[in-house]
């Protein structure tokens, strides 16, 4: 047995083992029947999963400012997020948010390994729900195993049917809710009830229903073991201070099924020595990926903590101290000094803090009006009128990025111009865009350079602080 955390071994594991492991799993292993566990980590996981379910199924029904609070309205090319409207030209903020999420995951991984997978990952969360339904309908682990081996009967058919009906119900509401983030959920549900739903919307709902049903009901750990890349590159973020679930081999070995306690008078070097592990295998029975944590750190471990709860319950019954299986680091197992905040974590945290600050600043300063300026597409860069003045033409594009009708005004700055034609207040509906052809006339003697800077500014009449400024250029003949 080897309970030491060998990060280098994980990093050097050949990628071909994914295919080999999958083939062996499909050909030889039976369905993993997970035993229920209770304890601190199981309760924590239920709380996190409950909050995730509440957010997923609840946010889609919230209203904010007369609109659905969270709506990815692709048809109107806008994303509504609790009063914030993100338009296509602002998508860089969403991309930045995804990068921040990735760095946040990296930072957490350097501290506690793969806890995201065990507590908050949607695949794991929905799998726990499906396992709970299976346990409620068919019974605990032993009853489910016996039921699978029994020949088909009316009772077995009824239980299996009821289980799959429960799975499909959860999957359907999951698919419906997911699509509801892309089309108004209230209208979608009304269309389903009235049987007036479009074929496209129904197809998307059923697609995500089937995917949820397959992933959480049938594939389960296969997604974590063979489809999710995070299991393979997580070791790159581990170090000797990373807290991962480990078995204390020094304390637990040698194993024995005997119920007698360790001899309190036993000293090192004397025989026989009896470890605290009673070899009950509960840590294996509760594991959703069917690994034996006593064999050491394995990439299949999703750090859910179920083995910790199962082992602690046995230690309590035996009168032993808890922590035979626990979150610990390689340094602690080797009785070395261990620092919770490693240099790698501090590096990730520093970058993460800077990026969060930049994103916050970007969101707070996001303008509610957008202005784009294109120079006229005529044959020449400029023209002279009959008075000898220089005229440049521009095409202004003004967009209302608020969720109410607004009036905007535009002005020109940066040049001592003679006249400006085409600058009139414009009233725009939600998301509406207006094209303004503008002609700027400047006397030739006022121009000292061939190319001079010129600014166009647009602002909201009702809220002058909401403005946008775009710099362009004014072209004139050489003196």
TrEMBL record:
Residues 270-296 form the 4Fe-4S ferredoxin-type domain. It comes from the Bacteria. It holds the Pfam family Fer4_18. Keywords: 4Fe-4S, Electron transport, Iron, Iron-sulfur, Membrane, Metal-binding, Transmembrane, Transmembrane helix, Transport. InterPro entries: 4Fe4S_Fe-S-bd (IPR017896), 4Fe4S_Fe_S_CS (IPR017900), Cyt_c_oxidase_cbb3_FixG (IPR014116), Electron_Trans/Redox (IPR051684), FixG_C (IPR032879), Ig-like_fold (IPR013783). The chain crosses the membrane at residues 47-64, 91-112, 165-185, 197-216, 345-366. The keyword Transmembrane applies. The keyword Glycosyltransferase does not apply. This is Cytochrome c oxidase accessory protein CcoG. It comes from Litoribacillus peritrichatus. The lineage of its organism: Bacteria, Pseudomonadati, Pseudomonadota, Gammaproteobacteria, Oceanospirillales. The gene is ccoG_1.
